[in-house]
Specification:
The protein is of the alpha/beta class. It contains 21 helices and 15 strands. It has a 7-stranded parallel sheet, with helices on both faces. Strands 12-11-10-13-14-15 form a 6-stranded parallel sheet, sandwiched between helices. Helix 7 packs parallel to helix 8 and helix 17 packs across helix 20. The chain is globular and about 65 Å long. The structure holds uridine-5'-diphosphate. The site of uridine-5'-diphosphate has 20 residues, from helix 3, helix 16 and helix 17. InterPro entries: Glyco_transf_N (IPR058980), UDP_glucos_trans (IPR002213), UDP_glycos_trans_CS (IPR035595). It comes from Digitaria exilis. Belongs to the UDP-glycosyltransferase family. One of its GO terms (molecular function) is UDP-glucosyltransferase activity. Keywords: Glycosyltransferase, Transferase.
Length: 496
């Protein structure tokens, strides 16, 4: 709110640049866009946030918050044509898809929002100045063209991973790679990096992806710039290269999650938590500062049941406190049975298990947390960076392997658990590739008092401080938000 007060009398506020935000309906993409909406509104812009009934109910806490605080955010709730595109009624988010083979149908249903959205925007005053669209919504380019306004893309990531995939696309690097163990180099990438094909970003294996990817890349190429949930002090080298290689202007406006500083907004992110938040805080309060490892793999990762059990045994063997978020649920009843068979009882004095949705930032930013075992989704990664804690990296698929390299090799704030294969999204797997010993070793390495761990802790803390400074008044991201609003406002005035 301080930002909105500071800007109430500024020329920015009086012109009210109007942003239309179109998030991808997936937790990892929608949650940061709610933060973006809030930040833009707090800095004096008008925001329209596109959503659908099921997604609106998931972000109810955020909607209530904006109403209570009078933020200038409107929600455009459009019917989501799930059934029309062969999806079950109410299947309005990527994490609700029963099979990854349905991803194409899901994307087609999203694309069908184009005409209703255009019609809705024609009635809006002030008319839109700019669309910020998830990169996967290639069809929003048509909407922007209709209104003669810029379309900026948001990909939900930092600069590091997208730089890799732009180089892959530019040089067609993967086309002739047959050997799955071949290490690929990335010409023009500013620091040494090698990955096998299956660990490269952009190679998610879903039906119809190649065709979609072409639309997405074409749309991205024509965009007027990129809004990034990162900050200059974290990875300016890679952001600079990204700008150079893509020829796109980048506005780094993150870490956007930092706009959530009070209890209510922290617990209102994403789904409703499956555990009482106060109880969770009480448990954390009872633990020594910096002693607990938080273990969570985001909203989409599908860890095999046997692998989950092995992970649990590793946590137990480490003898260190932990909070473990498990999303096995009905899908993997064997995990529940195993937990009930004695595990929960054996670790009850030092392990908190959360089944389903956890209030992640509330937990991560608690002083008891000293380490984060993460799947390296970008939101989780940057939330961990903000918490100023080191990480154990356990990537599953897509750009997560590249984020792991950023954390381990560049920031030097994490250790690898040592993942062998790729756990594709929605692909049922049964093999165990990370042993309990590997888990125990990684936890010990990160949480012990040794020099290496201390060094990592110090570096992580420093990045946490830099992250906060970036979004504080006068910081790099704070200033970029103002510049973004100004530039889009000026363009709209010049053309209107
Ligand atoms: N999240 C959460 N509780 C959970 C799981 C995830 O609050 O139980 C949030 C997490 O804080 C992050 C987002 O959901 O903001 C997940 O995004 P990320 O990019 O880390 O991973 P994805 O789910 O897209 O793989």
């Amino acid at each position: 709110a301080s930002a909105s007060q500071a800007l109430t009398d500024s020329p920015i506020a009086s012109k009210r640049t109007h942003f239309v935000l179109v998030p991808l309906m997936a937790q990892g993409h929608t949650i940061p866009m709610t933060d973006m909406a809030r930040l833009l509104a707090e800095h004096g812009a008008q925001v329209s946030f596109v959503t659908t009934p099921v997604n609106a109910s998931r972000i109810e806490g955020f909607i209530n918050y904006t109403e209570a605080t009078g933020l200038t955010i409107q929600f455009i709730k459009l019917h989501f044509p799930a059934v029309e595109f062969g999806l079950p009624d109410g299947c309005e988010s990527a994490d609700m898809l029963q099979s990854r083979d349905l991803f194409k149908n899901f994307m087609m249903a999203c694309a069908a929002l184009r005409d209703p959205l255009t019609a809705h925007l024609h009635q809006q005053r002030p008319s839109p100045s700019c669309i910020i669209s998830d990169m996967l919504h290639w069809w929003t380019a048509d909407v922007a063209r209709e209104f003669g306004i810029p379309r900026l893309t948001f990909n939900g990531f930092c600069g590091f991973a997208p730089l890799v995939w732009h180089i892959i696309a530019r040089d067609n690097l993967l086309e002739h790679v047959e050997d799955e163990n071949e290490l690929i180099n990335f010409p023009g990438f500013p620091t040494p990096l090698q990955l096998t094909k299956e660990r490269c970003p952009g190679s998610i294996s879903v039906y119809g992806w190649d065709e979609m990817r072409k639309n997405i890349y074409d749309g991205d190429r024509k965009s007027a710039g990129v809004v990034m949930n990162s900050f200059q002090e974290l990875e300016s080298l890679y952001i600079g290269s990204f700008e150079q290689i893509t020829g796109k202007k980048v506005w780094t406006v993150g870490p956007m999650c930092l706009c959530n500083q009070d209890f209510n907004t922290m617990v209102a992110r994403g789904n409703k938590a499956s555990m009482d938040e106060t109880q969770c805080l009480q448990w954390l309060d009872s633990m020594k500062p910096g002693s607990v490892t938080f273990v969570s793999f985001g909203s989409l990762a599908c860890t095999a049941p046997q692998q989950l059990i092995e992970l649990g045994l590793g946590l137990e063997a480490s003898r260190k406190p932990f909070v473990w978020v498990i999303k096995a649920g009905d899908k993997f009843p064997q995990v529940e049975e195993w937990l009930a068979e004695g595990f929960e009882e054996r670790v009850k004095d030092r392990g908190l298990i959360i089944r389903g949705w956890a209030p992640q930032v509330l937990i991560l930013w608690h002083k008891a947390i000293g380490g984060f075992m993460t799947h390296c989704g970008w939101n989780s990664t940057i939330e961990g960076i903000c918490a100023g804690i080191p990480m154990i990296t356990w990537p599953h698929f897509a750009e997560q392997f590249v984020n792991e390299r950023l954390v381990v090799d560049v920031l030097k704030t994490g250790v690898e658990v040592g993942v062998k294969g790729v756990t594709q999204w929605g692909h049922k797997q049964n093999e165990v590739t990370v042993t309990r010993d590997a888990v125990e070793t990684a936890v010990s390495k990160l949480m012990d008092e040794g020099e290496a761990a201390q060094e990592m802790r110090t570096r992580a803390k420093e990045f946490g401080v830099k992250a906060r400074k970036a979004l504080d008044e006068g910081g790099s991201s704070y200033n970029n938000i103002n510049l973004l609003i100004q530039e889009m406002g000026n363009r709209a005035n010049a053309s209107g």
